[in-house]
Design goal:
- It contains 18 helices and 22 strands.
- The protein is about 35% helix and about 20% strand.
- Strand 5 (about 220-225) and strand 6 (about 230-240) form a beta hairpin.
- Helix 1 (about 1-20) crosses helix 3, helix 3 (about 50-60) packs across helix 4 and helix 7 packs parallel to helix 10 (about 280-290).
- The protein has four domains: about 10-80, no CATH class; about 100-245 and about 375-445, FAD/NAD(P)-binding domain, CATH 3.50.50; about 260-370, FAD/NAD(P)-binding domain; about 450-560, FAD/NAD-linked reductase, C-terminal dimerisation domain (Enolase-like, domain 1).
- The structure holds flavin-adenine dinucleotide.
- Flavin-adenine dinucleotide binds near residues 105, 107, 146 and 212.
Length: about 575
């Protein structure tokens, strides 16, 4: 039995390498290989991937540590590492009196997910959160409230401008009640944060409300709102204290007229004019919200481009779409100073980066969205000698997938460590670090973390941009497909944008997938999955996609990478 499986494995490896290189001419061979792999997977039913073998062996040039790691794990053990096990804990009976296996400081996507997972793995776990509600930045003042306002403002814009041509008249003027919109937003936030409390109870996670700080490597002190203190003894500590908005010299935030994202999520009325300092994800999303609701929005950006690390072709389409929506851009411009004028408006002094030429701008509201920095205030890092980098991020061992700081037994994840400041990245690290603590092998594939901007059109990408692939000297193919040629996008009258794949010229392994268009974030899911499996664009192109769906544009872009799209 073992022998036959092993020989099967080798046969499949050979066949699949061969098959993936000759696919277009011999599809049946590929199907045979796939069938064999499926049969084998049936024996090893713990492992879901049918393409891992194909891909980890076929694109040597693109092999990262992660894929090598995945391959090693894949070949050595099917059941041990990647599979979420939930054995239940002992009920956390002892509460804080009893020594905990792990105390997690911070109840955001990193902290709360880690706490739930730790409990599922049978650990005694306490999560310390200073806010009254769980969910961190993401649920309280980040992802969730911003998406609530993006959804509401999109509906408003649709009602105002998108209905008439379909023969729908909404009757009279479309109006906006900002306080009601905010109430609806808070309803979503409230429901979701309460939901986490419920999950804590269900999984028997001890939840302590208060400010956590490190006493020593086995003791956390919690200061409650009423000033009382409690100490918790623990075997391990995970720091997940997240981030806060970065400050900008010369610009003082009052969260009323000069706001960070937190204030921009709570404006009481639509400003006539708004200046957004920084054209990153948060600035563009919240700028879009208030622009849709009627504000004249100008984005002032220091760099040459908006959207950070985005593929240039996608960026051009995206920025054109935003300009069409009447959002203005002042590129390569620095804000030097913000001053409140007697009439309550804000006067900004701006400077052209190249010429140093100064000028003034006036706005009702200024949004400072120039980035975020790790929040580690009064945590006790210095006292314990925990190392941080130049940007204040806690240094951890990512190479060995332990997320351990230089102090043994103390770990850190999420926005306070290096990497993209994203909720799902924090969650992946949370799962992996507690798996590591319970003696398993946690793993995060940093090469397959999606980025999404929830504007309209949305932008979503994973993996490398064309510029990065070029820079790395890799040989590659590109395939694009416009939503204008996708039947669902056309019938929805929402067809701005495109899907773009970049894959290895020799093996077709996907280097990156980039989408600007309707539902881009949802559409990206299959691309991320393909990359996680080490898949090729042909894997996507040969997968049957429902018709008529936007996802057919993904399939067509994959077809275009290997040759030609059918519908374009
Ligand atoms: C406006 C906005 C929109 C965003 N949209 C998205 C999005 O669409 N998608 C996405 O993936 N990401 C988004 N993000 C980023 C996302 O919110 C963060 O990446 C994510 O919340 C990080 O999770 P975390 O657990 O590391 O930290 P956080 O969510 O910041 O949680 C840390 C928690 O720790 C608590 N804490 C800190 N110090 C202590 C202490 N000493 N004791 C006790 N508690 C403490 C804090 O109160 C906080 O609740 C957005 C952020 C903002 C600001």
């Amino acid at each position: 039995m073992v022998v036959s499986l092993e020989s099967n494995k080798r046969l499949i490896l050979i066949m699949s390498v061969f098959a993936s290189r000759t696919l277009s001419t011999t599809p049946t061979l590929r199907h045979v290989a796939m069938m064999l792999m499926r049969t084998m997977n049936h024996h090893h039913h713990h492992h879901p991937s049918t393409t891992t073998f194909t891909t980890t062996t076929t694109c040597a040039s693109s092999n990262t540590k992660n894929t090598a790691f995945a391959k090693a794990k894949c070949l050595s053990s099917f059941s041990n590492n990647r599979f979420y096990s939930a054995v239940g804990n002992d009920g956390g009976k002892g509460g804080q009196q009893e020594q905990q296996d792990v105390v997690i400081i911070g109840g955001g996507p990193g902290g709360y997910v880690g706490a739930i997972k730790a409990a599922q793995l049978g650990m005694k776990v306490t999560c310390v959160e200073k806010r009254a509600t769980l969910g961190g930045t993401c649920l309280n003042v980040g992802c969730i409230p911003s998406k609530a306002l993006l959804n509401a403002s999109h509906k408003y814009e649709e009602a105002k401008h998108g209905m008439e041509k379909h023969g729908i008249s909404v009757g009279g003027d479309v109006t906006i009640d900002v306080s009601k919109m905010m109430a609806q937003k808070m309803k979503s936030v409230g429901g979701l944060t309460k939901g986490i409390e419920g999950l804590f109870k269900k999984n028997k996670v001890n939840h302590v409300v208060g400010f956590g700080s490190l006493v020593d490597k086995n003791t956390v002190e919690v200061t409650k709102e009423d000033g009382t203190k409690e100490t918790i003894s623990t075997k391990n500590i995970v720091l997940a204290t997240g981030s806060e908005p970065a400050k900008l010299n010369g610009v003082d935030v009052d969260e009323k007229t000069v706001v960070t994202s937190t204030g921009a999520l709570e404006l009481e009325k639509v400003p006539e004019t708004m200046v957004v300092i920084g054209g990153g994800v948060i600035g563009l999303e919240l700028g879009s919200v208030w622009s849709r609701l009627g504000a004249k929005v100008t984005v002032v950006e220091f760099a040459k481009v908006i959207g950070g690390n985005m593929d240039n072709q996608i960026r051009t389409t995206f920025q054109r779409a935003l300009k069409k929506q009447k959002i203005d851009f002042k590129m390569e411009t620095a804000v030097k100073k913000a001053e409140k004028m007697p009439d309550g408006k804000i006067e900004l002094t701006i400077e052209k980066v190249s010429t140093k030429e100064e000028s003034k701008m006036i706005a009702d509201v200024v949004l400072v969205s120039t980035g975020r920095k790790p929040y580690t205030e009064n945590l006790g890092l210095e006292k314990l000698g925990i190392k941080t980098d130049k940007m204040g991020r806690v240094e951890v061992n990512v190479k060995d997938h332990t997320w351990e700081t230089n102090v043994p037994g103390i770990y850190a994840i999420g926005d306070i460590i290096a990497g993209p400041m994203l909720a799902h990245k924090a969650e992946e690290e949370a799962i992996a670090v507690v798996e590591h603590l319970s003696g398993k092998e946690g793993h995060v594939n940093y090469d397959a973390i999606p980025s999404i901007i929830y504007t309209h059109p949305e932008v979503a990408w994973v993996g490398k941009t064309e510029e990065e692939v070029k820079e790395a000297g890799l040989e590659y193919n590109v395939g694009t497909f416009p939503f204008a040629a996708n039947s669902r996008a056309r019938t929805n009258d929402d067809s701005e944008g495109m899907v773009k794949f970049i894959s290895c010229k020799n093996t077709d392994k996907i280097f990156g997938a980039h989408i600007v268009g309707p539902q881009a974030g949802e559409l990206l899911g299959e691309c991320v999955l393909a990359m996680e499996y080490g898949g090729s664009t042909e894997d996507i192109a040969r997968t049957c996609h429902g018709h008529p769906t936007l996802s057919e544009a993904v399939k067509e872009a994959a077809l275009a990478t290997g040759g030609k799209a059918i519908h374009f």
